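Technical note accompanying the year-one report. For the benefit of new consortium partners, we illustrate the data format agreed upon in the data management plan: each record pairs a sequence with a structure-token string. No post-processing was applied to the example shown here.
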Amino acid sequence: MNIVVTTLNAKYIHTCLALRLLKSYSAPEFDVDMVEYTIKDPELNVVSDLFNRQPDVIGFSCYIWNVEKTIQIVKMLKKVLPNTKIILGGPEVSYDTEEWINRVPGVDFIVRGEGEETFKQLLHQIEGGQDYETIAGLAFRDNGEVKMTPSRPNLDILTIPSPYRFEEDKKDLGKRIVYFETSRGCPFQCQFCLSSIEVGVRYFEIDKVKSDLLYLIHNGAKMIKFIDRTFNIKRDYAMEIFQFLIDNHGGCEFQFEITADIMRPEVLEFLNDKAPKGVFRFEIGVQSTNDHTNDLVKRRQNFKKLSRTVTLIKEGGKIDQHLDLIAGLPDENYNSFKKTFNDVFALRPEELQLGFLKMLRGTGMRAMADQFNYQYMDHAPYEILSNNVISFAEITRIKRAEDILEKYWNDHRLDNTVEYLIEHVFETPFDFFQRFGDYWDEKGWGKIGHQFEDLFYRLQSFLVYEKTKNMKLIEGFMKVDYLLHYKQKPRKKWWDPSFSKGDLNTLKEGSLNDLIPSATLNLNDKGIQKHLVIEEVPFDVTKWINNRSLQLGDYLFIVYYHPKNNANEFFTSLMDQEISN
């Protein structure tokens, strides 16, 4: 029997753990072929590729980002492969399952919940038995009638063979993200999350986890993302994995989803002391700092303790942090969300993701939709449009702020400029992102692309529109961010340079040699032109970057772009009378 499992990933670099779990659990009785596409692949291309494989069975893993496109693919496939059995599974079709199977006539079966055992039993029945009613967790058609079998109890995950050791995955381990699980389930009951439905947490055997991680690292994995809903809920287990990865990381990076307010001081001390810089990355769901809102969605959170954890990790300088917010939660109006944003931005996470509530099928939040007068998209991703305290116009405005947040903070292209603006120009960080977002939308820039330098032109335009004071100082910050972005001397600048070729030569003959390290002194005039940039700025850049101390004055900002190691090095020097003349 020719069996294919497939999915549409959001990006090429992503991989689907579900397919690998189905393949590993179905062996050795069934040889399952895996094939992955992306949501950007044309539907007809996907259909053609699957048709050429001539499968007897095709299983699709369905999520909110791919289910609508998957449905169109299934409709076409059934026309060109009418005898092929088509199976859907995954979180998106595990709820309201009868609705899904009625909506898509080309689907023969839907696997609900954990799919490994159900899928394997289904393959046995397709091959010979066809007694589908004996399989728990299944929806199927019987002479045109939809039948649903009882839900399946939780699988004993210790019986699952490793899904990480397939030969066909080896060649791409260094190019893609490996998704890894050490546990299933979540101890919390956040009503907007599907994990709240499952009771209890089940753990994989730790020696098996270590062995699989070591295999991935030794075979070239560069990024492993743990999908455990709360990695640090079992402290001893988490600490043992942390220590193991510290000892064996091999240059691989690891991302964990943690609950920050339960992290003990001794764990933080251990990580700040032992973790290599850049090896660990933490994703922390804050969602809201409004206690009433958190109570409504059954989210237990101590923001004071969370802030302590985030601050201590940041001070340790070893681990990047990605913090999440959700706009549109119950009884969080526009002003309340603004406070949430400012509360969290004050922690200065390396990345702050501003998301919007999605009314996922099967969640308590979707069941409460009428109580809070939620209006939301009929189809995936079911994002909210409004509720009883926040309007569609306000949601739209927050989306504009989110766009600027991505471009000007999360991408880390203008860190120094943004830091100055939110501390010294705008009343709050949210005011900067919101007002700039509104201006960006008014100019129509969201409908056209942009180059890197356009970010500077557009910010300058916005600040002039705002009648911002101290523009010379702000433009100095912008020059610094622009020059430090590059590892090689930029070919163009968005401003008129302070120094011409003749000025540089004059400086070299004067006191330039006193301003820059001896490593650059052997450069001839041509070398200076090729690898050095000198600009006038109205503050001491070195003091600002080292300790956020703003010392005003007339300074030279000197950037040397190393020709061999693709790096830059900067220096600041107070301009004396000889240089300024």
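Partners are asked to follow this layout when depositing records. The mean pLDDT is 92.
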